[in-house]
Amino acid sequence: MTPLVTVTGPALSLPDADVDTDIIYPARFLLITEKKGLGRYAFHDRRDAPGFPLAPGIDQAPPVLVAGPNFGCGSSREQAPWALAGLGIRVIIAESFGEIFFSNCFKNGQLPIRLDVATVERLHAAAGAGLPFAIDLEARTLTVGNDAPILFTVDDGRREALLNGWNDISRIRALHGADIARFEQAQQQAAPWLWTKG
Q: What predicted TM-score, i.e. pTM, was given to this entire model?
């Protein structure tokens, strides 16, 4: 995965509550097996709605999404974060998230940030005004325009994985690769028949 250290740019405001994974990525597109290029299907059935911030046919969005409460609820559809990634969204800020969606974001190189209601409402206004957002994952700060940085929390292990661009497998290899190699070498000597092919 592409490491996530800092993200800067404008933000997209989508304040609707309970935007589920079927709204983010409609079920009828689940037969598409390619992970890349799904951005064009993100929010597909909402794009014609008056005031919706993404027009039909657009496959690029700002890198930050300020969302409403309970964003990504519903099914465990991993295509939802894939579609948002396809739009170029790396950071999603909301008061609350669907639990599985929240976890899937980290597994796909995206940073979901939980903040209190008042702060998120202020961020919606800032996004609507076109103010620049700057997220620094190392410092765990979000800065909007010339305002003072806002601190956010993130699990240490997930933060480390995002900073290094690790998925679950590459994280295990990076942190425990030498231990795995030593175990395999010792087991080959202790039980060589387990390593014989055929």
A: 0.91
